[in-house]
């Protein structure tokens, strides 16, 4: 059959993977927070969830289409690690500000979803960090200097 819109959808095995589910949750939460901030009095915070939504969506489709295997010039785990760290810090700080400073319901909802997004991004950071440490330990044991005999 000719490829149609189904060719744009990510493969099922990626959607069932831990990384795929985390990136999907990050994208959905960031979009919900973006919508909440648009409808709230705290509209000045709207840029952070928009950027996080776009970056999570970009990485979601990059990993789903295996661009990380094609473009070796980008250190994908490190970029993902930095994205998760900055996103969790930013979401935590703007969520505290939205919940404490603004009294409308949309700001409170954005703050609550922001705390949930902080947890999801922190989990993604933890898993990516452990994978990166495991990869670096594995790479250092395979180095030629480690196999020298004296």
From TrEMBL:
Subcellular location: Membrane
Predominant cellular place of this UniProt entry's protein: membrane
Highest taxon in the source lineage: Eukaryota
Keyword Membrane: yes
PROSITE patterns, alphabetized: MARVEL
Signal peptide location: none
Residues annotated as domain MARVEL: 14-133
Spans through the membrane: 22-40, 76-98, 110-129
One GO CC term on file: membrane
Keywords tagged on the record: Membrane, Transmembrane, Transmembrane helix
The keyword Transmembrane helix appears for this protein: yes
Topology term for the membrane: Multi-pass membrane protein
Pfam families referenced in this protein's UniProt entry, alphabetically: MARVEL
Protein name, UniProt field: CKLF3 protein
Organism (species): Prunella fulvescens
């Amino acid at each position: 059959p000719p490829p149609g819109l189904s060719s744009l959808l990510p493969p099922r095995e990626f959607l069932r993977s831990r990384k795929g589910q985390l990136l999907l949750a990050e994208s959905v939460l960031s979009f919900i927070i973006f919508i909440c901030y648009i409808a709230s009095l705290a509209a000045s915070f709207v840029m952070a969830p928009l950027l996080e939504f776009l970056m999570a969506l970009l990485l979601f489709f990059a990993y789903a289409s295996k661009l990380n295997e094609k473009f070796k010039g980008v250190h994908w785990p490190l970029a993902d690690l930095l994205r998760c760290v900055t996103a969790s810090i930013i979401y935590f700080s703007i969520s505290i500000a939205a919940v404490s400073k603004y009294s409308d319901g949309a700001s409170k909802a954005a703050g609550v979803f922001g705390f949930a997004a902080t947890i999801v991004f922190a989990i993604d950071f933890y898993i990516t960090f452990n994978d990166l440490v495991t990869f670096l330990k594995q790479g250092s044991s395979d180095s030629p200097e480690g196999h020298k005999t004296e």
